[in-house]
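Exercise 7b. Backbone tokens:
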């Protein structure tokens, strides 16, 4: 790879003198000045920092600012290369293969690094140089300790996500979710840990526990800003920033000029712990972390500090004091290099959520495809250049030239020091991977719930037992099943155990044995089984209290036989055993989540107390995503845009209020009906999920009833036979079930040869969800006589069994008894 170096020599009244060299050979002197005036620089800053807040205003000014990036880049290129004929000639020899070129900008002067080197552009080429070539900054300063990671067979990555404002903040998993998805698709061995909570203290303790040289990458997914002390003193919200009692640091002291900060979470919602660049560098010094990635806004920004320089000493000329203000080190990325890191990636200005997600997804996808990290960064910048649409305020989409924002500091090649597995390590790695519980994928995928996940995790960290309460059809089971996988993948827990009371009435003995099988080895398990239950309980309580597991008890309303609950009840003594067990786990390391439609008052005082999260409908963005997926599945493509713009569809969406089941069973009707027809039908049935009060379960049953009424008479009759089922039906058992029903007198006149057609109708109307576990087969094809059924599952929408049971009450007694 050819290395083109631009090294600053001296600062002058008008700019800088520098040396351009190619592979360290011939050096060419050049003179460089800032291509922008102060006013133009301010306009560029407005373009990146402020325009997206009011994207419908000043569009001409924004276009001018966007065009100025190209002018800036070409001017800078001309100063560096075209001013010296020999330098330009040598550059031209390598520009035909820029993917094999690395530019290095070397200076210890913050003002030199304040130039937008990433904008540099050859006017003869279609793209800026940084899009096609690697562009690195180097700031050669002494470091106390150089990063050296221990040899490892896996890449260890720590993601620190801080969302101080919770529901008023950026979505919790904007970066971490696509990161985990990229890892799942890659072949590279990567272990990701997501720090909880996102506090400075948690990070300090976590790094100390892991020891030096453990992590290869630390990714800071949080807000950043350059602030002066007045801004810190007078925030937009009173008491927003921590001043005193800051863990591991002294009180925040007054300072001159501006400093770079990152925003960790405080102890309560809305409270921010500002961590200054030097404090963060001090924390990371000696931890042996080669790479730090920051998608924090302004994390690589250098600004002119409005702090007057001291008067010149006697005999000093103006050339040594070129202005009445100076640049000091305000770049967080540059400052972190003093922690001995090999590479730090930051952002020159504020970065939109859209751009951060796009860039980080691309970066990790390429990195985990075993591209060098410098190339992965270049390719992610190229993606920003090729896809410039960004979501601004008021749901407006704007185009931004934010490919310019990523700034990369690197003083030496990144060395992750990876090695091959030993046989024992590989076995352990594969066993750990096999223990993870992949959740059953919902028909439309897992959508949204970032805020809910954040709130649940924070609640569990405060008190380790939580009641997740919500009506039937809210999505509790979907969320809890997903949390099992999410928590294991991000190492929030060592293992997760799920007990669904819609499937069976789990008693304490069954719970204890199921957990013990997973947490104990063969010898320990045999010893455990030989003990009486009281001893088993005590041993497992000790294990759960001292280790971080998750125990999920779902559909818990069934235990006491609440209204509309599936009757998997437990006797009072059996319930007491579970209550006593849970009480002994209060305050321990294991998290307990109870999912229920009821308030579970019999458990509350001694277990979850007031730690309750009420699950409601999806947020606006997530419900829109779910609606899109439902329409794509059930409606011809040419009708989707028309439906989306229909005013009655908007009213229908408001009526359904983001409740997943109501949306799934109702919007499927758009296959054959207009939004107006569905809206009228639901309103006739008194469905109003967005009323904001009362138990909405009845309204969801009305949604089911509306979809059921659209089935053919034969299908309605045949589907009544599914009343005994709940949760899942394996299609391979249906022929045997039908054969048994045909032996019974009440079912002699049932057209069971049309049973598959009835099931397909129910799938089409959103009452059942077909799951095909064989990826190469067409999803949910209608079953043909004699076709193999062993690979197909049917998911029953949660309220549908209750609805069928209510319908069962309307048929003759003989049929009711036969199906019971």
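Sequence design result:
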């Amino acid at each position: 790879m050819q290395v083109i170096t631009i090294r600053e020599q001296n600062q002058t009244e008008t700019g800088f003198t520098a040396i351009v060299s190619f592979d360290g050979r011939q050096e060419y002197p050049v003179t460089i000045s800032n291509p922008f005036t102060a006013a133009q620089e301010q306009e560029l800053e407005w373009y990146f920092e402020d325009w997206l807040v009011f994207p419908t205003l000043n569009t001409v000014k924004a276009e001018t600012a966007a065009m100025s990036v190209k002018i800036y880049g070409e001017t800078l290129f001309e100063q560096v290369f075209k001013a010296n004929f020999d330098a330009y000639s040598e550059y031209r020899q390598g520009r035909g293969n820029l993917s094999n070129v690395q530019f290095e900008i070397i200076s210890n002067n913050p003002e030199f690094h304040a130039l937008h080197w990433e904008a540099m552009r050859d006017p003869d080429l279609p793209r800026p140089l940084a899009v096609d070539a690697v562009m690195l900054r180097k700031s050669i300063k002494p470091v106390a300790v150089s990063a050296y990671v221990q040899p490892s067979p896996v890449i260890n990555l720590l993601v620190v996500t801080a969302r101080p404002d919770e529901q008023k903040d950026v979505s919790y998993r904007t970066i971490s979710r696509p990161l985990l998805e990229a890892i799942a698709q890659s072949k590279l061995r990567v272990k990701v840990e997501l720090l909880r909570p996102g506090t400075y203290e948690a990070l300090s303790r976590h790094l100390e526990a892991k020891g030096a040289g453990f992590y290869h990458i630390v990714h800071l997914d949080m807000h950043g800003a350059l602030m002066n002390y007045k801004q810190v003193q007078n925030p937009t919200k009173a008491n927003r920033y921590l001043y005193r009692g800051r863990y591991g640091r002294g009180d925040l002291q007054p300072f001159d000029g501006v400093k770079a900060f990152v925003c960790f979470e405080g102890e309560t919602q809305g409270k921010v712990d500002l961590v200054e660049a030097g404090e963060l560098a001090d924390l990371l010094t000696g931890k042996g972390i080669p790479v730090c990635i920051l998608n924090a806004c302004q994390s690589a920004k250098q600004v002119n500090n409005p702090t007057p320089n001291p008067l010149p000493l006697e005999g000093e000329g103006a050339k040594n004091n070129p202005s009445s203000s100076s640049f000091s080190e305000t770049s967080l990325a540059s400052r972190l290099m003093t922690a001995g890191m090999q590479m730090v990636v930051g952002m020159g200005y504020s970065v939109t959520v859209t751009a951060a997600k796009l860039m980080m997804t691309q970066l990790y996808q390429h990195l985990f495809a075993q591209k060098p990290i410098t190339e992965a960064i270049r390719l992610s910048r190229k993606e920003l250049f090729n896809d410039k649409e960004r979501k601004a305020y008021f749901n407006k989409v704007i185009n931004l030239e934010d490919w310019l924002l990523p700034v990369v500091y690197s003083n030496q090649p990144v060395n992750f020091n990876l090695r091959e597995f030993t046989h024992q390590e590989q076995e352990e790695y594969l066993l750990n991977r096999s223990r993870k519980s992949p959740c059953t994928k919902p028909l439309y995928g897992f959508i949204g719930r970032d805020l809910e996940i954040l709130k649940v995790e924070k609640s569990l960290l405060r008190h380790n037992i939580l009641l997740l309460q919500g009506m039937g059809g809210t999505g509790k089971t979907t969320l809890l099943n997903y949390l099992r996988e999410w928590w294991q993948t991000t190492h929030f827990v060592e293992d997760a155990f799920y007990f669904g009371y819609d499937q069976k009435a789990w008693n304490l003995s069954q719970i204890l044995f199921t957990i013990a099988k997973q947490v104990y080895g063969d010898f320990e398990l045999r010893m455990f089984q030989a003990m009486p239950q009281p001893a088993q309980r005590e041993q497992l309580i000790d294990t759960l209290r001292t280790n971080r597991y998750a125990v999920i008890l779902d559909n818990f309303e069934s235990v006491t036989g609440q209204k509309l609950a599936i009757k998997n009840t437990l006797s009072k003594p059996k319930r007491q055993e579970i209550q006593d067990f849970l009480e002994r786990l209060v305050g321990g390391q294991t998290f307990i989540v109870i999912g229920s439609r009821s308030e579970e008052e019999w458990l509350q005082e001694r277990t979850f107390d007031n730690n309750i999260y009420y699950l409601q409908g999806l947020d606006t963005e997530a419900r829109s995503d779910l609606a899109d997926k439902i329409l794509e599945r059930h409606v011809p493509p040419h009708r989707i845009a028309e439906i989306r713009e229909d005013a009655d569809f908007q009213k229908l969406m408001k009526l359904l209020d983001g409740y997943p089941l109501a949306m799934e069973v109702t919007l499927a009707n758009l296959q054959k009906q207009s939004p107006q027809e569905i809206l009228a039908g639901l309103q006739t049935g008194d469905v109003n999920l967005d009323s904001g009060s009362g138990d909405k379960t009845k309204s969801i049953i009305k949604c089911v009833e509306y979809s059921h009424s659209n089935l053919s008479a034969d299908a309605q009759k045949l589907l009544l036979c599914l009343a005994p089922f709940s949760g899942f039906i394996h299609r391979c058992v249906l022929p045997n079930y039908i054969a048994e029903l045909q032996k019974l007198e009440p079912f002699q006149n049932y057209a069971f040869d049309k049973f598959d057609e009835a099931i397909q109708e129910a799938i089409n109307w959103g009452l059942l969800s077909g799951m095909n576990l064989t990826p190469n087969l067409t999803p949910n094809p209608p079953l043909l006589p004699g076709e193999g059924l062993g690979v197909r599952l049917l998911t029953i929408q949660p309220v549908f069994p209750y609805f069928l049971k209510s319908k069962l009450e309307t048929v003759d007694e003989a049929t009711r008894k036969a199906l019971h």
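Instructor comment: The two ends are 75 Å apart (CA to CA). Residues 59-82 form the longest helix (24 residues).
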